[in-house]
Structures are given as structure tokens and as C-alpha cells.
Amino acid sequence: MDKLIIEGGKRLEGTVEVSGAKNSALPILAAAFLSKEKSVIKNVPQVADIFTMVKIMKSMGAKVNHAADTVEIDSSNVKNPILTYKLVSTMRGSICFLGPLLARFGQAQVSFPGGCVIGPRPIDLHIKGVKALGADVILEHGYVLAKAKQLKGRRLFLGGAFGSSVLATANVMMAATLAKGKTVIDNAACEPEVVDLGNFLKKMGAKIEGLGSPSIEVEGVKKLHGATYSVIPDRIEAGTYVIASAMTKGDVTLKNLNLNVLGAMLDKLRDAGVHIIEKNGHVRVRRERVLKPVSVTTLPYPGFPTDLQAQMMALMCIVPGISVITEKIYPERFMHVSELNRMGANIILEGNSAIVGGKKMLSGAQVMASDLRASAALVLAGLVAEGSTEVSRVYHLDRGYENLVQKLQSLGARITREKDFR
């Protein structure tokens, strides 16, 4: 197991290129199984979840060539639509195979997925969606067993206790591409990653309308063909570097970023006093003065992303005054609070809200990562803390950030990766 050693107090300066979106790439790779023809996916981030996805595809009999940021998939010889627990236990995104396998093979056996420990993340909407299309679903021995001779399109409402679901929308949309007739998904997720998947499906020959809206219409077709497609930039990775620049009083330019997909977060940062300028396709983030506290509530897109909640909290820890961060997507997603407090932060939890009393300085400490985005928050806190910070269990970071250490080093951060022998 590895750990990160961070010496705080270094201002970040320079340019960083944003990698492809992990949360787009995962369902897009699964969608390639809807066709017997080869697909080529480009701008795929080199992160652990993608490596796991490649292993899953190969385990089912697909021919996969993964080189740098390009993945070629040939699933023509796949005969075994089963995802075992051993491979999916570390990655929740594996559930997005349910729709494609069911649509193409008429059956799917998918182990209940794993992933980050951020509170309950049920798959009930996935099951509700494929059932609505005519699938028989049985839950036994830790597996979802789904069968359908022919999926049939219909109108369905895909809402849960905390709003829409990105992966459930993706699963139903993929299954509906080969269903008989029209499917209308009401309360569909509007996230850019859903739009990205939809655009790939359309390139494969799917008929889809309403992408980016709460109502997506899919007219089923008899078959899909292979396609070559490039994944959009990762808005969560980008947002993490934006906050890193703001925290370190930095001057960082981000390449390969569509500013529009971060509207809610950038609005809050501007309210706090961060300078954000877009020019010629690049985004420059500067902080030149003391920031003001802002309160944040996470919401489905286009609201403030839950995947940037922890990083925003790290920023508010060093902004004088009181801010309130409310989590409405995953109400228990506060595993990072105790670790930030170990670094001298002043955070009190009240239900699904965190009350943050900003301080001038954090202090370096030994902290432990609990999930992907909490890990990022601890790294950001370490960048500004007095002294040395050790972040253990950084395999969480490997799941979603490509070359994080190297990118931060290129901006001037004093950060290294070492073996953790504890």
C-alpha cells in the first residue's frame, strides 16, 4: 500500500491538462457490448477503474486492446454475460453492464457492485428500469439475474429518494436502444456524462432525443454498429484543480475543459472571490485576496456536484467565517470531516450538513483516505497545511485521478508517493 507525503505552503502555478472523464468512459466502454462490431474509445483516463473495466470485459471473452488513452473493444465472441464478484467488488460502475448485456444477450448476471464507502447507494432504480422494459429480475446469492426474450419500450419514471440516478439512467438508456418500440425516461439524469454516453450511442446508430433534459426518448433499433468516439474531459478532476489553485493562492491554467459543465461550482468560487477567466478554450484560475465564506448545497446537475463537496469543504476550512455545506445526494458522505479536523479544521456535523468555521491555517498530520473524493480533499488540505501531511490508502485516488502526483508536481507542489509499511 502507498501513501502521499505533502509539504504544505507551496503556491501552485502553471498549466495542467484535464484527462478524460472516468464517469463517462465506464458506461461508454460497457455500451460497446451492444454491438458485435469493434469500437474504439479515445481520451480514456488511465485510472484504476478503467483497468478493472478492461479486466471485466476480457473475463467475458471480449478482445480488448488498451494502449495509453485508447481502448479498442471487439465483443463479437462474447458468450458469457456474467460479471463475478471478484472483479466488480471494487467498482460501482460495473453495474452499467446490466443494460447492455440484457439488451444484446437477453440475459445478464451481475454481482452487486462495490466502490467508495460514502453511504447507501442502492441499485433499486436500475432494477426498476429494466423491469419496466419487460425483464424478469431475481436477486440471489449476491447477484442480479435478469432475463428478457425481447425488451419492450415504455414510459417510466426513474426517480429515487435523492433525485435522478446517473448510472440508472445510463443503464435504461442503453437497454432501450435495442428494445422494441419507444422508451421515454422521465426524471432522467441531466449530467454531461449521460449526454456523452448518449452521443456515443447515437454514433453507434441509436435513435435518442432529449439528452441533457429530464425526459429522454429512445426509439429502439434492431442492431447497433461499432463506432470511434472521444470521451469528454473530466469535470470533477478539473474542479479539483480549480479548487487547488484557489486554496494555494495560485495561478493555474486548465487545458481541455468546457467551463459550462462547472457552472454551479464556479459561481460559488466567484462569490468567494476567486478570479476565473476563460480564453481560447483554456481556463485560468487565480486567487489574489482573502476569500469570503460561501454555503453550498449539493444537487443533481446542473447543481453543485456531490463529487466536489469534499474538495469545496477543504477550501472553506481556510476561509475565515462560517460556511454551511449541505449534502442532498448522499447524506452520509462526510467521511472526510474527521480527518480534516485532525488537521486542525473546525467542522461540526448537523444531520446532512457540515458547519465549517474557517481558520487561517491547517496543520499537517497523518490522515487516512476513505473514498475517492475524500482522498482528494485531504490532498488539497495538505497543500496548504503547515508542515508535513501523510495521506494513506491512496489507492482510492488511483481509481479516479490520472497522474495526480505528477500533475501537482508540475504545478510546483511538494508531493511524493512512497510505500506505506504500516
Record keyword descriptors for this entry:
single chain, 422 residues, alpha/beta, UDP-n-acetylglucosamine1-carboxyvinyl-transferase, Chain, 2 domains, four-stranded mixed sheet, 14 helices, 26% strand
What does this structure look like?
The structure is a single chain. By secondary structure, the chain is α/β, with parallel strands linked by helices. It has helices spanning 22-31, 48-59, 85-88, 98-105, 124-132, 166-176, 192-203, 235-247, 263-272, 309-316, 336-342, 372-384, 395-398, 404-410, and strands at 2-7, 13-17, 39-42, 63-67, 70-74, 82-83, 107-111, 136-140, 143-147, 155-157, 182-186, 207-209, 215-219, 228-230, 251-255, 275-279, 282-286, 296-297, 321-326, 347-350, 353-358, 366-368, 388-392, 414-419. The strands form 6 sheets. A 4-stranded mixed sheet has the order 22-23-1-24, with helices on one face. A hairpin with a 5-residue loop joins strand 12 (207-209) and strand 13. The chain is globular.
Helix content range: 25-40%
The named CATH superfamily of the largest domain: Enolpyruvate transferase domain
CATH architecture of the largest domain: Alpha-beta prism
CA-based gyration radius: 21 Å
Q: Record the strand order, biggest sheet.
A: 22-23-1-24
Q: Determine the strand fraction and express it as a percent band.
A: 25-35%
User: Briefly, what CATH class of the largest domain?
Assistant: Alpha Beta
Shape: globular
| Count of the domains | 2
Q: Low-confidence parts, pLDDT < 50 over ≥5 residues?
A: 115-121
Biggest sheet character: 4 strands, mixed
Q: Structural class of the secondary structure composition? A: alpha/beta
Mean pLDDT, as a whole number?
A: 93
What's the total count of β strands?
Answer: 24
Q: How large is the count of helical segments?
A: 14
What's the CATH topology label of the largest domain? UDP-n-acetylglucosamine1-carboxyvinyl-transferase, Chain
